TrEMBL record:
InterPro entries: Cro/C1-type_HTH (IPR001387), Lambda_DNA-bd_dom_sf (IPR010982). Signal peptide: none annotated. Pfam families: HTH_3. GO terms for molecular function: DNA binding. Residues 1-26 are annotated as: Disordered. The lineage of its organism: Bacteria, Pseudomonadati, Pseudomonadota, Alphaproteobacteria, Acetobacterales. This is Ribosome-binding protein aMBF1 (Putative translation factor). It comes from the Bacteria. Residues 81-135 form the HTH cro/C1-type domain. It comes from Acetobacter lovaniensis.
Length: 141
């Protein structure tokens, strides 16, 4: 018998478990079995799949995602703070010490990742030698 032959109950001299005849199928090694689709009739690859929304004409056009105004404001203000700090020759550590936070927090303010709390504005204004109103002036980033 060949390696790909499946033995049925008659070949093993056993009585069949059911009266229905068994269908013999070729054996697969474990590597071959992994490559076989679970259900060959439904074996669609990603390239073969159909987008139902596209097919039915219900797909919405996606608009480019815009940053919320608050995030743009935080980033703009952060750039201005960094520019002023470097103009004065101050390190992030020095500003952090004066404000009472870590240099990582100052970095987050400058990158616009964290919003500056209102209570911090007067202290930061004094450290950067600017009036409090400087934080609310519009300026290009």
């Amino acid at each position: 018998m060949g390696a790909n032959t499946v033995l049925n109950h008659e070949a093993l001299n056993h009585a069949p478990a059911r009266s229905a005849p068994r269908v013999s199928t070729p054996r697969f090694g474990h590597n071959q079995l992994l490559r076989q689709p679970a259900c060959p009739a439904v074996s669609l690859m990603a390239d073969d799949q159909i987008d139902l929304e596209d097919l039915l004409g219900t797909k919405r056009a996606t608009m480019p995602r815009q940053e919320p105004e608050r995030i743009r404001w935080d980033k703009t203000l952060g750039k201005r703070i960094r520019r002023r700090r470097t103009q004065l020759g101050l390190s992030m550590e020095r500003v952090a010490e004066a404000v009472g936070c870590t240099y990582q927090q100052v970095q987050k303010y400058e990158l616009g990742r964290n919003a500056i709390k209102a209570a911090l504005v007067p202290v930061l204004a004094e450290t950067l030698a600017v009036p409090v109103t400087w934080f609310f002036e519009s300026s290009e980033a």
